[in-house]
Amino acid sequence: MDTWTLNPCYLYRTSPVGCPHTFGEHVKSPDVTLTDVVFYFSVFADNCNAPLVSSLPHSSFQSSSQSSVGYAAHNAKLNRRDGAGGWSPMVTDQEPWLQVDLREQMEVTAVSTQGRYDSWDWVSGFLLLYSDSGRAWKQYRQEDGRIVGNVNSEAVVQNKLSHPVRTRFLRFVPLDWNPSGWMGLRVEVYGCSYKSYVADFDGRSSLLYRFNQKSMSTVKDVISLRFKSHQMEGVLLHGEGQRGDYITLELHRGRLDLYLNLDDGRVRLGSRRVAVTVGSLLDDQHWHSVHMERFNRQVNLTVDAQTSSFQTRGDGHSLDVDYELSFGGIPLPGKPGTFLRRNFHGCMENLYYNGINVVDLAKRRKPQIHSVGNVTFSCSQPQLVSCTFLSSSSSFLSLPPPRPPASGGFSARFQLRTWNPDGLLLSLQLHPGPQTLELQVSGGRLLLGLHGSGRDGLWHSVRLDTRNLHISLTVDGEPSSNIELWEPVESRGNFFFGGCPSMNCHAQIPSFQGCMQLIFINGQPMNLSLVQQGLLGNYNELQLDTCSIKDRCLPNLCEHSARCSQTWTSFSCDCSGTGYSGATCHNSIYESSCEAYKLSGSSSGFYFIDPDGSGPLGPTQVYCNMTEKKVWTVLSHNSSAPVTVQSSSLQKPHVMRLNYSASAEQLRAIVSGSEQCQQEVVYSCRKSRLFNTRDGSPLSWWLDRDGERRSYWGGFLPGVQQCSCSLEENCVDMNYFCNCDADTDAANDTGVLSYKDHLPVSQVVVGDTNRTGSMAVYSVGPLRCYGDKSIWNAASFYQESSYLYFPTLQAELASDISFYFKTSAPSGVFLENQGLKDFIRVELSSPSAVTFSFDVGNGPAVLAVKSHLPLNDRQWHYVRAERNVKEASLQVDQLPLRFLQAPADGHLRLRLSSQLFVGGTASQQRGFLGCIRSLTVNGVAFDLEERARMTPGVSSGCPGYCSGSSSLCHNRGRCLEKSNGYVCDCSQSAYGGTTCNQEVSVSFDRESSVTYTFQEPFSVMQNRSSQASSVSTDSRAREDVAFSFVTSQRPAMLLTVSTFSQQYIAVILARNGSLQIWYHLQTDRSPDVFSPALNNLADGRLHRIRIHRVGKNLYIQVALFSGMENLNEEVLQAASKGFIGCLSSIQFNHVAPLKAALTNRGSSLITIRGPLVQSNCGALAESTSHTLQGETHTITQKLPKFMEIVQKNIKNAHDVFKNCLKLQNFVQNCLEHGRN
Fold it and tell me: Which residues form the Laminin G domain (predicted)?
């Protein structure tokens, strides 16, 4: 362990930030060891818990009010019975608080609360505010929700702070109390004192730390400091060297940017790139801690509790800085007091550079420190008084105007910050009336009306002036906008900021939610302290003397690099371009393997697979070959053509590096999840040996996926240095292990590598082609794998007390659990994991219901899906449960999904500690009896079979015909167990036959059509019981459409799906025969039209189309699309031409409408017009027609990717396709059928 990793205490002779000032004394001795330092640090950390309140005088306590003298604030000491036994406010106090002055800056690590002695008065929940000066308060935010208080008057509840607070003043603000009593409070605060070295920078000053030598070169750097400022721009630290190295810490737009370059001289100061940005809202006048550690190229930057780690680019490992480091600005060389960038305006505390206390040296006027401008050593930062508007419906601040200026008119100016796009900022009545002036934020822009950007969380200044016959609006000092008036106007009555009482509002505009400060009316500052004391104006739903803005996108709880956006009360995730969907972009929109695509009814082609599902790896494109009995996953690389090698030797070998279409991590996941993998290596030689015939050492070799040298050229026995001919005993010369080692004029060693742990081949090295006439030609085939080990990995539970156990679930912020089960038992727990209080459980709660329950600290949450048919029918059933910070969901088979929205500002983290129990519980009660297979958690497949082999009461695998890895039923067909065999249920498949593999095709003429009317909206698109936000509802909408067709007609209508509200999807062939997909989800918008395949598909060949949508993510095979609107002229033209040709295997979600039309002709849901002839599209196709695999080459000439994800902002997509799906020539028939 190296000393520099000590955080935050650094092994130097001066005290770093966060350490007691006596720490330096302990490390002055040259005999001190690192063990001593670590021991001292741990003792200090454990000892910062001394009581700080018990010895304070009465004057250190204040409160908003007190019921009487006996209930005064100074009686609020823990376990004391002074006065009435604690503090209680007046019953009429609308905003009660208790304040404690610790007399000096302290590090606070915990608080304890107690109710009023021997009473029914206690506080069950409260806010904790802190401040340096007793003004400008900041709310302490626990990582998970509000701070929990008491449940009676005597028990002490201690809350340890997840991150210590350094402050002098604390304020307890009761939120909840005993409903049968009143508020009562006694408190204690725990912590310790700490040494503070402060420097104040006035925006025109800096400190220069000058080195003893010309330059300083370091491979390790530790920089730590605390700062506070009300400016969102300013340089905290800068250093640079002549050869291009530099380091800069800079505030920019309220965030902290670190610029760091170690050796790339091409990147100059003026064009530097931002290496990392950390933090948010750092211009809030409160202290923020910064800690940067660098070792060689590895950098950790921490701001408050958020850490970002990265590696610098290039090969350099040292930071070379010339002459000096500057703190507070970047001075212009030769011109003291002038700066290249805007310098810092605020205070810095405990500023350490590699253990050197910069402020202490400056304060003692040491020669290493040079001061530029006016740097003082006490923090005189002005405390700007802010107010927070809490409610979007009822907040307002009413202020009487001062005397208007002599020139007439009126003016108002203020600063605001918010996340909300809409809200009323200012409203006032005008004279002569009746007129009202309203200033509002609408869609993030400022609007001024008679009857800019402002939602980025930053402070913006707004100024409103009336002068002569103009009203002018100025934002952030930009040129003003003006409104001309017919006559002069004056203000009448109070100015309403942030909203107004309902009787005063001109229009129904949401109240402003955000912060305001520096409010001026008619040029006079408004004293908000007088407002708080009730001496000026009036207000409602307002917090004074604090800005309670919170960045809900920090940390970013959106997964897979999705973009986070927010309002005052919530955040949402934009999953566009990520390949994931859901409220937090947790769920992959792709299958995990080619085997999974095969089971869903897909055919051969290029697909994106996500080998770890919701895990971090991401999707990659592969080719899925489903033409054989086995489903092969094929991954290509950059060198598929044969390579000729000459003039290579061991000293100068030929080296070929193979780059695959997937990353190394993705390759590893695909290989490990497959049953078998192989890769063919063809090696043709002429006087080019693979092994030295004298000592057997390799002359050529290949590197495996880990970069290890391998010298076997076939088979699955890596320890044997042989070629395939030796393993098969058919080498041309049995004296050698390889044909090429016979050193003849022509030989060949072709082998198939099949040892999974070494695949794929990452590099080929050839070293024996430097002799006269010698040459080698080799090629490495693609990586080919088959099987998905997780799909049929199963365990059977035949004792109720038995279970399998696995390590604790890593599911703090998000988790998804999926599996199949079959049972005859009426109930049983599938899975359970517990913590101290939190838990997560999935169980069969009754013969027809699956329940998903959990508790993250907000109380138990329960989701249940009930089936109208028994689930204990000895058949396989699918379960998927998901929980994230925004919502939870439960899916069982094709039954309606159930959703539950997470409470606002509730606990987020699921804290588990016990083992994960599968098939039972820790109590060995309510165990599951039956089979579980394909258990996957957060994309990780659990090996149930391996664990079952060593567990009593559980056996590996599952008995029955439908439990094997061979797919007995195809194309979404469901295998059903029978006593003497099995049958395939093809009701949800577009195919027929005994194994659901027979194509269901119909030939249409110009007058033919089929209409299928849905009985009810698809539950997967809509969930009326859900209470989640519209954003997450949008993310749940989904369709899966697949069909094949053969036609020579163009234009032609292939398929439409429409609703009574004029929403539709239409799939047509345009006049040129190209495929077009029309998507209309918003009736007030034009449709989106996509033409993914520009070639003519009306060519008499068989084409397969698959369209898959999840929320805003759309994925199309042999086409590309995304879209939205009402039947357009071009769609109607295609419809008027009808469709002449053959359609087959049509699937829409779990409905097969074409098959239903053939098998249920008397159904009221089916409408058939014209002649309908059962056919075979494949047989009708021309002899030159291509299947999907054959079509690939043509399509990929048009598209860079055969299958693509198209990200379009499809809004309000959750009401799509409620009513009918049409396979037709006349589109209107669908709507007519609905009206009749």
Answer: 198-379, 386-547, 793-958, 1020-1177
- Model pLDDT, residue 932: 95
Read off the pLDDT of residues 640-672 as tens digits, 9 standing for 90 and up. Answer: 899 999 989 888 999 999 999 899 999 999 999
Write down the pLDDT at residue 172: 96
- 386-544: CATH architecture: Sandwich (2.60)
Mean pLDDT of the chain: 81
pLDDT in the model for residue 1165: 66
Residues of the chain with pLDDT under 50: 1-45, 267-271, 337-338, 452-453, 1016-1033, 1119-1126, 1182-1236
Homologous superfamily of domain range 552-587 = Laminin (2.10.25.10)
The CB-based long-range contact list for 143-147 (8 Å cut-off, 24+ gap) reads 143/305, 143/908, 143/909, 144/856, 144/857, 144/906, 144/907, 144/908, 144/909, 145/857, 145/858, 145/905, 145/906, 145/907, 145/908, 146/175, 146/905, 147/111
Q: What is the DSSP string of 911-928?
A: ---SPEEESS-TT--SB-
**Options 3.40.190.10, 2.60.120.260, 3.50.50.60, 3.40.718.10; CATH of 50-193:** 2.60.120.260
Task: Count CB neighbours of 850 within 10 A.
Answer: 26
What residues contact 410, with CB distance under 8 A and at least 6 apart?
Answer: 401, 404, 466, 490, 491, 521, 522
**How high is the pLDDT of residue 257?**
92
With b for 16 or more beta-carbon neighbours within 10 A and e for fewer, the 405-415 pattern comes to eeeebbbbbbb
Taking only the tens place, the pLDDT of each residue in 604-616 is 888 999 999 999 9
The residue among 403, 399, 400, 411 whose CA lies nearest residue 439 is 411
Q: What are phi and psi of 520, to 5 degrees?
A: -120, 140
Architecture of the domain delimited by 794-956: Sandwich (2.60)
Contact 200, 141 (CB under 8 A): no
Q: Which fold has domain 1000-1014+1037-1179+1192-1198?
A: Jelly Rolls (2.60.120)
Distances (CA, A) of 951 to 796, 802, 954, 955: 11, 8, 6, 8
| Phi and psi at residue 1193, to the nearest 5° | -60, -40
- C-alpha count within 13 angstroms, C-beta hemisphere, residue 872: 16
If one looks up domain 198-264+273-332+340-372 in CATH, what number appears?
A: 2.60.120.200
pLDDT of residue 1138: 65
pLDDT at 329: 87
Q: What are phi and psi of 830, to 5 degrees?
A: -75, -40
Strand partners, 753: 679, 715
Spell out the domain ranges in the chain.
Answer: 50-193, 198-264+273-332+340-372, 386-544, 552-587, 637-783, 794-956, 1000-1014+1037-1179+1192-1198
- As a whole number of angstroms, the distance between CA 474 and CA 463 comes to 5
pLDDT of 31 reads 36
> Taking the CB of residue 1184, how many other CB atoms lie within 10 A of it?
9
Predicted local distance difference test score (pLDDT) of residue 1113: 63
Decide: 753 and 714 in contact? Cβ < 8 Å. yes
Classify burial at 577, counting beta carbons within 10 Å of its beta carbon; exposed 0-12, middle 13-18, buried 19 or more.
Answer: middle
637-783: CATH, from 3.30.470, 2.60.120, 2.40.160, 3.30.70: 2.60.120
